[in-house]
Amino acid sequence: MQGNVADGTVTAVSSSDAYTFTKSNRDSVTLLAGLGVEGDVHAGATVKHRSRVAQDPSRPNLRQVHLLHAELFEELAAAGFTVAPGQLGENLTTRGIDLLALPTGTLLRIGDAAVVEITGLRNPCQQIDAFQDGLLKRVVGRDATGAVVRKAGVMSVVRQGGVVRPGDTIAVELPAPPHRPLERV
Asked: Where are the alpha helices (DSSP H) in 70-123?
């Protein structure tokens, strides 16, 4: 832990080799430096998400690994939704870290070797409502000031590869100040 940011754990790991909304849970995933999750459709040095490829396929992939906090599932359950790890397309499901409050550039040291750098917020899309009607309004909305609030996790790039498994610890390393708040990527 650095500062007053709590460390956490990995509760699930997921991947898919095809463009599907949900990703299958795995016993482990291998993170590859500069690429993402080995065998995952979104792995690569340049953008892989279809909407980003259509805009400019040569742009760097800032969305190599999607992390989502398990605490969101509990919040959604209280609103009548049933969501399990991997079902919102995340690669790593975490517990104990307020991912959405981390600044851009935060490093997460996961397990024995892997390191990811947080690049920004996931921008939830209509596919979430196709998965469960009304769910999109629960993961994106506005605060009292009218600012958009995105709750569907954070995106990251792999700085150091390694195998990640459920139960692995996550150590949070904040960047040097001044901290930049997360924006959608």
From this structure: 71-78
**Locate tokens 């909407």: which residue?**
51
Domain presence at residue 184: no
pTM over 0.90, yes/no = yes
Reduced to 3 states (helix: H, G, I; strand: E, B; else coil), residue 13 is strand
Task: Please tell me whether the peptide bond between 178 and the residue prior to it is cis, using omega within 30 degrees of 0.
Answer: yes
Q: What are phi and psi of 73, to 5 degrees?
A: -60, -40
Whether 140 maps to a domain, the answer reads: yes
C-alpha–C-alpha distance, residues 63 and 41, integer Å: 11
In a domain, 178, yes or no: no
HSE, side-chain direction, 13 A CA sphere, residue 167: 4
Counting the structural domains of the chain, the total is 1
- Is residue 46 one of the residues assigned to a domain? yes
Query: Mean pLDDT for each 10-residue chunk of the chain (185 residues)?
Result: 73 96 97 98 91 88 97 97 97 97 98 98 90 95 92 97 98 97 95
